[in-house]
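chain below, 611 aa
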Amino acid sequence: MITLLLDATLKTSVILLFALAAATAARKASASVRHWMLSTAIVCALATPMLALFVPSWQAGLSLSSSATRTDQSTAGSGPLQLSSSPAETAVANPASHSPLRETVGRVVVPIWLTGTAISLLLLLVGLGRLALLAARAERVRAPAWTAAAEDISVQYGLLRTVMLLQSDHPTLLVTWGLRRPKVILPRAAYQWPEDRIRVVLCHELAHIRRRDWMLLMAAELLRSFQWFNPVAWIACTRLRQESEHACDDVVLGAGIERSDYATHLLDLARAAVDNHTAWSPALAIARPSTLEGRIRAMLNVRLNRTPITRPAGTAIALVCLGITVPIAGFTTTSGPAVSAVDTSHAVRPAIKVVRMNVMDRRNRETLAARLDPSVGVIAGTTLAQAAFASFSGTIVDPLGGLLPGVTLSVLNLQSGAKQEVHSGRTGRFEFVGLPGGDYSMEASLPGFVTDHQSLTFSPGLVAEQNITMQIGSITETITVTSESESSPVSAVHDVNVRTGGRASGGDKSCSPPVAGGIGGNIKPPRKLANVNPTYPAAARDAKVQGTVILHGVIDIDGYMRDVRVLRSPDANLAGAAADAINQWQFDATRLNCVPVETGATVLVNFQLAR
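prediction:
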């Protein structure tokens, strides 16, 4: 956990520092350009953990010496390898693989981070709740001076969303919030304002809505909540608010408001806010006293660039920011060495070969011991000071031993979130290289077969080989039975898991089982030969009982249903009627590589009363 936290903090800081540097360098550009730079960077930083799951990963590692990665064949079998009789014992005994200091720091830092994040998110929710409460208690503004000005400015800005003007009991609160239904909350004295102040306030607040500043502000607040300890995140979020206000000021001045008049109104609003102490809220306020001096200085500067950002420029900035974020998101560092073994949780546990055993210490030539379930086999560890990455390879076959090309395999690093994906070759072989040490989740999928899931642990330098046997999928059929008639029409078989993938056998005459080591995976789904539809039981119909009965059975190699059992049913009569009908079904059996095989079948029978 501490590694993930440090990794996320480093990546977020790098992205935000790039944006802050770019915004500082673009001081001659308009405030809207700088605001968009910071906005895209904050969104990318917030999305970095999710991007790391999809983008290609790359690592930075360092080998201690050129000879450290050589395999010592003479000592590969000399170490005291002991097999354990307990399947649970899968780790290599190695007290140096975990640093006590690292674990102690993790136990202290992680709870502190979680507590700070919870408090930050709670404060954000409290602020949002306060705004919602104020909006619920506020009255809708219907004065012609306000509604006419709002409609005129909305047309001028090209706003398609209806803006709700609300008046609260607060003496000075003036904020804008909301995305789909934006709201402008006005203070108690808003009805007494002159028309020029009404226009100034609405020009500024509707500019926030036009620019969708609320959505970007919420993204910044979320990032700051998760990175509450990171000063770079605080600086970026504060700078975002400032540039947002400057950009809206530019829009107001572009609408024809005189600089001196605008500055006078802002000073009056800020003075009232100071006198009445406006409470903090996550909404956008027109006159924050802390930023007022810089804004007035900027609006009185006639040489500033106030041009709104164009769509091509915004797209270019977003693409550049994404181009910086993607490699940063995919970057992973190799942590301290750890020695462990591969553990698989799949029901069919394939054999894992002994690949190699290196020397841990050149002086005492002591080898590492691995304890694994004898049904799984042994994976040898590697020297703690040697290679930085692990590799993982093997062959994928079907239940009859046929090779399976085109299988999609992926491994996900549970610590860093980095993901690698490969496909098995023509001979069913696959290989992952450059895997940093750690815990992984592996998935192997191919249409027509059950997706194979395994949990793996790799140590740096480990070379592991494991063969995978993929099990054939099952079929699912859905039937609807109504109470209007005693039987329902025959429904089509919905093939959910069993698919041919373009390699189905064409027919029995031209089909011949593959030779040993040949290409497999040729699936011919079952074809129903005899069908009996369930009938709606009179007792259930009279009792007004309806619902779905779920059953599971096996289509044997002769095509008959057997071992049919009810998984779920709303009524015993409905379950009995469904089971009696399904037991009478007959199929042309499923064939794998032209050989009849058993197939699981799930049947959903929907009993519906006539309307």
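Confidence is low (pLDDT under 50) at residues 61-98, 334-386, 487-509. Residues 10-56+103-329 form one domain.
thats it, cya
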